[in-house]
Specification:
The N and C termini lie far apart (about 55 Å). Helices cover about 50% and strands about 15% of the residues. It has two domains: about 5-140, Rossmann fold (3-Layer(aba) Sandwich); about 240-390, Histidine kinase-like ATPase, C-terminal domain (Heat Shock Protein 90, 2-Layer Sandwich). Helix 6 (about 125-175) packs antiparallel against helix 7, helix 7 packs antiparallel against helix 8 and helix 10 (about 285-300) packs antiparallel against helix 12 (about 355-365). The protein has helices spanning about 5-15, 30-40, 50-60, 80-90, 105-110, 125-175, 180-205, 210-240, 250-260, 285-300, 335-340, 355-365, and strands at about 20-25, 45-50, 65-70, 95-100, 120, 245, 270-275, 280-285, 310-315, 320-325, 370-375, 380-390. The longest helix is centred in the middle third of the chain and has 49 residues, at about 125-175. The strands form three sheets. It has a five-stranded parallel sheet, sandwiched between helices. By secondary structure, the chain is an alpha/beta fold.
């Protein structure tokens, strides 16, 4: 997995990249603890405990621990019992157990339940333990990094949500443009989506971090970031009240640039066709850019690689302008078409944020227009953003 998206997010959020170096050894035999400590303490910060109870006391204190190695057979509390408890209270902690061959079955069951990350058979090999500890601490760093990013994005989102709610209140008092009220409604609806994505990240981090589960968590974080970026742009648009003359080509190029910044991974050429009589449009620029971005995202996901996406701008009568995005995908069924612009509905697999077309519909309505989705037989879909110019 390419670590750069996560590193970029850490830098953007002002978060230092976590490091994991602290190991807790748990064994009721002092001699075993002494040998393991001597094996590991040259490279890592090592703490020791001679019982499960003592280990829990250390972990409930101010001492930060990143990885635990425990013996299975201990009086009062077995290694699996200790690690099962830690899986609930310290889900990011990497958990290892030392065991004899006869103890394997309950430990394999604990691994399948996500309670144990790794087990080591006795007699253990010193170099193998050092390698496994290094690998476990690396996994711990990835878990801590993704959690820090997710929590940082959550804070950012809540700040924007609070700001939009305040703007909504001011809007009611001063009866200004109703756009801010609409944007605040969108922000309040995103809270449930954010919590659902955070739950998905949490579940992935608690399970065995194979490449598939790590990618799933990363995908969820990127989706959260997309939501945060959308809210930020919409919030800025609400503050600016930017109903002005804009070049439609510039609006489209800005939306395409935002799409490229998201690095969706496909290589679909975008063909632009603008009615030559339309030099400028009188619109709210940031909102129209956001709507175009949402339409382009959907077209990109629907279209096979390298299949062109068309963007068209045309006039209908004196005041109506149609901005159209045409994809090359399989189209939508009647049932999906009816639900496509509903909040949090997604017909894609894996699911998108489910807000792209909802936001397009709202932008269209604030411009006195509407969003239309038309079948483009024999393949694809035409998404039309109808807007009404308010020229004097």
């Amino acid at each position: 997995m390419d670590p750069r998206p996560i590193q970029d997010l850490l830098s953007e959020l002002g978060i230092s990249e976590p490091t994991c170096t602290r190991v807790l050894l748990v064994d009721d035999e002092f001699e075993v603890l002494a040998v393991l400590e001597a094996l590991l303490d040259d490279d890592w910060e090592v703490h020791t405990a001679q019982s499960g109870r003592e280990a829990l006391e250390i972990l409930s204190s101010d001492t930060a621990i990143d990885l635990v190695i425990t013996d299975q057979r201990m009086p009062e509390m077995t290694g699996v019992e200790l690690l099962s408890s830690l899986a609930e209270s310290h889900p990011d902690l990497y958990r290892m157990v030392l065991t004899a061959y006869s103890d394997v079955d309950p430990i394999v069951a604990a691994i399948n339940q996500g309670k144990v990350d790794q087990f080591i058979l006795k007699p253990w090999d010193p170099e193998a333990i050092r390698r496994l500890v290094a690998e476990g601490l690396a996994v711990g760093e990835r878990r801590a990094t993704m959690r820090a990013v997710a929590e940082g994005l959550s804070v950012r989102f809540e700040e924007k949500n609070t700001a939009l709610s305040a703007l909504k209140g001011a809007e009611s008092r001063f009866r200004a443009d109703e756009r801010l009220s609409t944007l605040a409604w969108v922000a309040s609806g995103l809270t449930g989506e954010l919590h659902r994505l955070m739950d998905g990240v949490h579940d992935s981090l608690r399970s065995d971090p194979t490449s598939a589960s790590t990618k799933k968590a990363l995908d969820s974080i990127i989706r959260i970031r997309t939501l945060s970026d959308d809210i930020n742009r919409l919030y800025t648009a609400g503050e600016q009240h930017d109903r002005a003359e804009h070049s439609p080509r510039k609006l489209i190029s800005d939306a395409v640039r935002l799409l490229m910044d998201e690095d969706a991974g496909e290589n679909n050429p975008i063909h632009v066709d603008i009615d030559p009589t339309i030099e400028t449009v009188l619109v709210d620029g940031p909102q129209i850019r956001q709507a175009l971005l949402g339409m382009l995202r959907n077209a990109l996901r629907a279209s096979p690689p390298n299949v062109p996406i068309q963007v068209r701008v045309r006039r209908e009568g004196d005041v109506l302008i149609a901005l159209e995005v045409v994809d090359g995908g399989p189209g939508m069924s009647t049932e999906v078409l009816q639900s496509a612009s509903q909040p949090f509905f997604s017909g894609f697999e894996p699911a998108s944020t489910g807000l792209g077309l909802t936001l397009c519909q709202m932008v269209a309505e604030t411009h006195g227009g509407r969003l239309a989705l038309l079948d483009n037989h024999p393949s694809g879909l035409i998404a039309q953003l109808w807007i009404r110019e308010r020229r004097q």
